[in-house]
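Work package 3, deliverable 3.1, input record:
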Amino acid sequence: MSLLSLEAVGRNFGGLKALQGVSFEVPEGGTFGVMGANGAGKTTLFGVISGFIKPSTGGVTFQDKDITSLPPYKRCIAGIGRTFQITKPFPELTVRQTVRIGVLLRTKNMAEATQKADVILERFGLMAHAERLGHQLAVMDRKRLEIARAYATAPKLLLLDEVAAGLRPAEVDKLVELIDSVASEGVTVLMIEHVLPAIFSLAKQVVVLDHGQLIAQGTPSEILKNQHVIEAYLGAGYGTA
Ligand SMILES: Nc1ncnc2c1ncn2[C@@H]1O[C@H](COP(=O)(O)OP(=O)(O)OP(=O)(O)O)[C@@H](O)[C@H]1O
Ligand SMILES: [Mg+2]
């Protein structure tokens, strides 16, 4: 059974077709990747899945329920958590408070929430920064906080929008490890990523968008050999060097 299913999703912004007839299914378990050039429609797709953007056409099914008209907070309760491409730490909240807000989705007991938040801070390597404000953190720690905040809502499906962007290779490796450990707990991860080593070491299946349309789906090695993907995204010279 698939966890998430997109059926002919389209989204127009004025005359621009940011998404057109996009259909694919994300099975339960493991990591699934979304690739595509800048402006291909990837973040718009996440907006449609998480409810921040209404599709102009088509629908979204999660755990066999049509969620197309549910607002974002109800999708979060249903088990869809997301990060934002442009990290926006709450300016007046500490790292601990930020993660605790996520935990409070599932419990109203503050002591329990603080305790659970601390377990997550430890797990994500953020405990040393618990009392700092989110915007004071270095890039790598902001990324971790962004993922921790979404993870804290106990999602079944975790949407990660370019969390490896801007990181050094050693930092990418650490992040890959973290995402892999989250996925191995049974959280299904859907990740948008330009950092190819990150997506190729994690994702079992990848879809590729080009100008709002799905142009390929397959395993990372199939995608690397796909002529359409090479022309539209990887670059015509890819693999010939
Ligand atoms: N709110 C909006 N209003 C108007 N146009 C938008 C809006 N959001 C996105 N777009 C346009 O839709 C297209 C797809 O944007 P989107 O952000 O989904 O791309 P992306 O694949 O995430 O790109 P990137 O890799 O740069 O993050 C782009 O042409 C973008 O300019
Ligand atoms: Mg984007």
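Residues 169-184 form the longest helix (16 residues).
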